[in-house]
Amino acid sequence: MWQAVERFERLLHDRGETTHPRVCARAADLLADGPAPYAHVVVDEAQDLHPAQWRVLRAAVAPGPDDLFLTGDPHQRIYDSRVSLGSLGIATAGRSFRLRVNHRSTEEILAWSARLLASVTVEALEGEGTDTLAGYRSLLHGRSPRAQGYATRQKETEALVNRVGALLAEALAPHEIGVCARFSLSLDAAEEKLRAAGTPVLRVKGQVAQETEGYGWRRCTP
């Protein structure tokens, strides 16, 4: 393993390149050499920060009242960057508060998801202990989720086209229907079949432009 690390180090040196964690480490060192430039720092999506990025933030603000305000959801981690904030000089004991009211999903979706994740262990945002979805609730209500498996992608796509057709038959407008898939290839197949069925389609990439909001169903990857 160390030979691979040394090889990587030589390649970076020969190319005059570096990595983002190295840039962060250098920034933290430079900040530590002088007075902290900020009195307060607000951090969003804290669950996805790398330890090197936390060191930059800690060095950028002097320890004190309300020095670091952090918001995050450990259940939405997309990177495996778990870290003990206390080990980096960021005190959270007795200073954290959980927001348990969900304004984004319906109660039916929340309850369904919580059952699926009941056996999954999630490390707390602070890096010490675990977090749970117990006690969370939603103010919104809607239909209960339906789960259905298919033997092949082709059968799944055919079922999707039939489902969209059924929703349209219920007088739902095309722009009120959204299809989300993990991979773009799945969306490509869905788009092809839906267009063949005469359904207008709009591919979502980033923010939807205001003038396109009445057009077609939405398809996107999470």
Give an account of the 3D structure:
The protein is α/β, with parallel strands linked by helices and 222 residues long. It has 2 domains: 2-140, no CATH class; 153-220. It has 6 helices and 9 strands, in the order ααβαββαβββαβαββ. The chain has helices at 2-15, 20-32, 51-60, 107-116, 153-169, 184-196, and strands spanning 41-43, 68-70, 101-106, 122-123, 130-131, 137-140, 178-180, 201-203, 217-220. The chain has a 3-stranded parallel β-sheet with strand order 7-9-8, covered by helices on one side. Strands 1-2 form a two-stranded parallel sheet. The protein has a two-stranded parallel ribbon with strand order 3-6. Strand 4 (122-123) and strand 5 (130-131) form a beta hairpin. Helix 2 (20-32) runs parallel beside helix 3 (51-60) and helix 5 crosses helix 6 (184-196). The protein is extended. It starts with a helix and ends with a strand. The relative contact order is 0.08. The mean pLDDT is 88.
